[in-house]
Amino acid sequence: MGRSAERIELARRALSSFEEVMRIENPSLIERDAAIQRFEFTFEAVWKAAKEVLYEREGIDSGSPKSVIRSCRETGILDTEQTAAALQMADDRNLSVHTYNEKLAAEIYSRLHAYQAVYSAWLSGLEGND
Q: Environment class of residue 86 by beta-carbon count within 10 Å: exposed (0-12), middle (13-18) or buried (19+)?
């Protein structure tokens, strides 16, 4: 198994964990915060998998999450709408990691179901380029 395949597998496991917590109906504050935490580590796993795929398959060496996202758009892994959502995900991830604010947590949580679909599409796009 190549490095990109390993990264994709780690990202798939992170996404599965994220999806598990997102199935909770009417989450408590602790469950909501757990969902946000899983969103954060899924974001890390997915963008790093994308970085590896871009390097191995396209020769693109991007160093930041946003540059990786833009490169995924340029190579057809993400479409325009998914790219916009992924860039918002990067912003939300940065905000949630560096600051805890109840209002912000509620806002980010409200977007997590949509982000779940973007993660799934992103990983499918990465796998489709095998």
A: buried
